[in-house]
Batch of 4 targets.
Target 1
Amino acid sequence: MPLFITLESTLVDRHGNPILAPDGKPVDRILQPTHSWVKQFPAIMKSSMQEISEAGVFDTAGAARTVDRTPDPILDASAPAGDDDHGILVGTSTTAPTEDDTNLNTKILEGTAAGQLEHQVMIFPALVNITGGRRVVCSRQFDNNSGGSITVEEIGMAVRQRTTVDISFMLILHDLITQIIADATSRVFTYNLEYLV
Amino acid sequence: MPIETLETPLAYQCEAPPLSLVEHWWEHQLTDLLGKPTGPLHVVKSNSWLANMAAQMRTRLSNTDTDGLDTGGVTRAMTNGLTPTRGWSLQSAALPAGQGIGGRGILLGSGSSPPPEATTDFNLDGTIGHGVGELLFQDDVMHPLVTIPGGFRIFHEKLFLNQSGAAITVTNVAITGHSNVSPSSNLFLMSRDNITIVVPNDSGVIVKFREDWTV
């Protein structure tokens, strides 16, 4: 079987705990299949598989870079709190993603000003045993302290990646998702990568 | 011993049908001893990414150690921060006859080949070695990234020559990668499928692993 990837969005409290209905289920959780790898992901994978650099791969600023396979970081999405350069990122554009995308179209920046969200640390729980395989979970909580409601329309994941000239940020996933984050509320977005036999 | 209840994959819980965005195929074709095709090309859908693939992906994305099962069946923590970085490293050069099994990249087996099992498979079934009396492994070759409709293709191949004096029956094929574990690196089985290929004496077989990323 192939690799499946899904995207979750869950309304949470400020501690990251899902807000539950009386029946014990999250009051606001969606789960959807994703649609969009972007070219940087297979290019980085190829570089790592082949142990060779890969030219013509674009960073999030749109600059062409040559991906190097050593030393680390390779595909590092472990962004700290307050970092809006890598890890899971969100934006407000409704433009359909394409395989050539190098960044979100209209990224929501870190902060508490109007239209901004606070990015919490990326979370990677232990691998999950699932029927027929394993799940890699990548999550991030976003807190809205902007004073107004914010509608997320796009989401992606970017990584820190070694290149021949620097450590670049590179987008690897890009999807559309519509989620309203009211002021003074929080939401967790999760990419699930499921490897199945 | 408690029985572990496994979660259903989230891909099967979506209202929309799950989409396979990265699909894998094996291709194989008999050749002469120079690698020139002599038979039809066979294309077989691959059914397996094993748990080690997920472990390496988590290791990279999270920048933290993740346990995998090496080809000796030993649990080892895949790790980051070592130089050179080895993640899914598949490249393996041809070895002189008699120098072991070649180790990584595309490998073949001749055992009874039970169905692939994601979390317990750690090596080929009946690994075919490299050398006289077995198969002679040539270089692993990775082709440039190919643009295909809706995405990209990773293409990896390896030629095996049979000068053993008798036909050799391959029953399972696999991808094995080199990954960092402290303090160096180990071999990890990443994918295994059951495919039967009869390689006559004085001939070869070229085996290709194709990975299509589409959106």
Target 2
Amino acid sequence: MTDREIIRLYREGNNPERAFDHLLEKYEKRLYWHIRRILLSHEDTDDVLQNVLIKVWNGLENFRGEAQIYTWLYRIATNEALSFLKKNKDQESSLEDHAKIACSLESDEYFDGDDLQRSLQEAIALLPDKQRIVFTMRYFDRTPYKDLAKILKTSAGALKASYHHAEKKVEHYLKERY
Amino acid sequence: METLLNNPKLRENPFKVPQDYFEVRLPSELKRKIQASVRTTPCATASTTARATGQKRNLWTLVRPVLQFAACFIVLFGFGYGILSLLPHTEQNDSEESASVYVWASPQFIYNLMQEPAHEDVDVSDAEDLLEYFSARGMSYDRLALADE
């Protein structure tokens, strides 16, 4: 079912829950992994994803279709993840942050990566919030810059620069360890 | 260095989710939360309340500047009235003022004023009277002439 068909079903059909189910079926996993790569922890991701989906359910009525539904969903998910990060950011130094991330990944029963993968996640977690989002969406999902620009409401040029800086930092972090 | 980031293993997903998370846990939890949110704010009630609040807000937004202006006016008026009431003035002053105002405003006075010629010829006897008046006050004709020049 296409996005347009889902929206039409929501607006014209007698069963909006059915349209929402179709939307979930199509996007929930993608949104989950998008948020998970930013937040790392499953529990945090679960909380944020539920908030995102409730916002989507409440906002579907007012969705005008000016943007693609994919862009709209990713924007909500990204903003929610960023808000979560800001809310939970304390005054710890980057070294303490690093220790915390490394420790949390080691003890995370839902992390199945090797040392190199763990180091990559640590390096990504140490990036500034926006660079982290740009890097994960480009590196793992290979999201085109034009889609990133729509989701993050930033120019493609600025995003390329952001990705370049993030890539350099991650490379540097990995180079120190391997 | 770039070889590390180009390593295909790094692009693999190292994360897992609990069993039945997408199939059971997430949908049931989501359904529960959505139902709870609907129960606390039923659509009709919520929209009606929101609309009513919006109307109240709109009305208040319109009325507030008018009320503020009226309040300022009342305060200024009261302040001015207080100052005027503190100034000393007697009933006699009031009656004199009102009498002079009455004379100036009377139609008869205005009529007389209009009947007067614009330039009257100066009577010589009046001029002599004036000279006498000034000389009595210590002002000579010469000083008056100099002052004229």
Target 3
Amino acid sequence: MIPHPTIDVLSAHLDGELPRRESSRVAKHLDECLRCRHELEGIRRTVGRLRGLDREAPSDLLATRVQRQVALEAADRTLAGRFELRRFRLPVQSSTLLTFSLVFALAAILYLFAGALERERSATIPVDLGSPATDLAGGETGVSPMPVEEMVWDGDRWLSESGTGGSPHPRLEVRRGSPQWDELLRHHPELASLPLREEGVAVWLHEGERFLVKP
Amino acid sequence: MDVVAAPMSDQDLVDRHRYGDATAFEEIFELYQGMVYNVALRMCGDPVEAEDLSQEIFLRIHRHLGKFKARSSLKTWIYRIAINHCRSRLGRRRWWGISIERDDGRPPEIRDERRGPEDRAVAEGEARRLGLALRAVPSPFREAVVLRDLEGLTYEEIAEVLRVKIGTVRSRIARGRDRLREILEEA
């Protein structure tokens, strides 16, 4: 006699889920084995009771509940979609902001650059020495005329006649007859009496500005 | 000449849903509500909870229907969602210690409702007895038995739903039935 089949095999045999060959072998065994027939009968009864159960129907409320939930989810998704759209728009707004910031920064740079240029340009122009009317009037406005002192080249550096200062070389050069020279003369007519020297005459103005008057 | 409408295939329903046809989901609900409810009922044993589970299962179906790839039939796919959802929900319940399954390996005693003062007037039906017995069968075996003996799926379909081998399906069905028989005999 073949060995007793396991409950897995008996159960599958009952369901007709065994290969034909195996199924016929089990059937043959069952013909001869009361114990396995009894076992199979127990399984058959249990399965019969289960299959005899009526199918239950859900209440009508289930459809309503599902419909409502689906509608709510759809509404949520629409809201989420709008949010997504806003989220998508955000970079566009950011780029606008960025563009404005860049334009503003560029304008600021240009302004600063122009200011620097202006300052540079004004640095090359002789110092505004004040109105000749007031300065030369000698105190009409309460301001003393600026002292002008000729500096002497001692072969190494320029020295004031009073010997109080010195400089390797005056920073500004003014040529006689140039507009700058005319401007200087307007403020300081005494400069007209400066001697003509080929190497130029150094002048110390107001203890700060030194320039060299070239022929 | 009579015009016979061709039966709507799973893929047609899914495609209609994908293109925004709300009636497609309604048709799916009509077709499968009984199936989903009965699986949920047999898995949890409580009609009220089964309705809650069914509602959640259909919401899951609605959410994921657009991603259905038709690698399996829609029916198998819905069974899988239903079983997985029940497993997850009931597993959570077991985590909180509400399950009636016992850990000592012995079949649990079925409470005879007729002996309770509240249910004395209520006749205990076969359905209730079997329902209680099923609840006492461990989940993996119960799933297999429900799908085979109550839903009538083939071993191959069950293997697809549970994503296990056919040998495992055979073993789970046999053990589930055996356990159920023990429980019913002891009751």
Target 4
Amino acid sequence: MANTQAMCTSFKGELLSGYHQFGAATLTSRGSLTAPTKDSFKAALYLASATINAATTAYSATGEVTGTNYTAGGVAVTNANDPSTSGTTAIWTPSASLVYTNVTLSTAFDAVLIYNDTQGDRAVSVHTFGSQTITAGTFTLTMPTNDASNALIRLA
Amino acid sequence: MNQQPTLTQQPQSPEQQIPMIWTSKGNRPIAGLTLQPEWTVNDDYIKFVERWRDESGEVVKESAHVYDRKGVHLDGAVAAIG
């Protein structure tokens, strides 16, 4: 088993259904909700022995890391910047690093799952970074440059 | 004429004078630990690991910092009609 970096396939379909709201929007009413607030996203770490990939549809505690000062479900994703476009590509990147502070994660992990905490924990994407353990330390994931070539989520 | 206030310093205990670092065994003097930095650089990410070992060689503190160089992308496609 292994984790594979990918945009989750279910997420692609859910985009067309309007499940995920990364930025503020003013909508033409389809019902009663015309100015919904942004969704909240979270980032959970997964063991190297887990299997999360494009087929992952939602957050699950199965295969998630456990350890001192790590809370199941992971940390909140800071989302101060709405999605934007660069050339012909739509882009979105969290506005701050993902930081797991003073944790001890003794079993090797190698992936993070970004998921929509507001909409039933629906999966967004999986990112891998090589096998790692943490001992009484900090794990930091610094986000890529938010441009058409590197943004965390790119729709070209 | 204004007089500068006199600053008084609390005397430091010997422990406060020694640079310490938080480890799996509590606060330990940095001088007694060995730092092993490790870098991984590839097209997808840059990772810096700082690994501290005590006198016995045991890892008592390990932090990692990853710069995700590139996220994931989706190529949109539309079909021709007709």
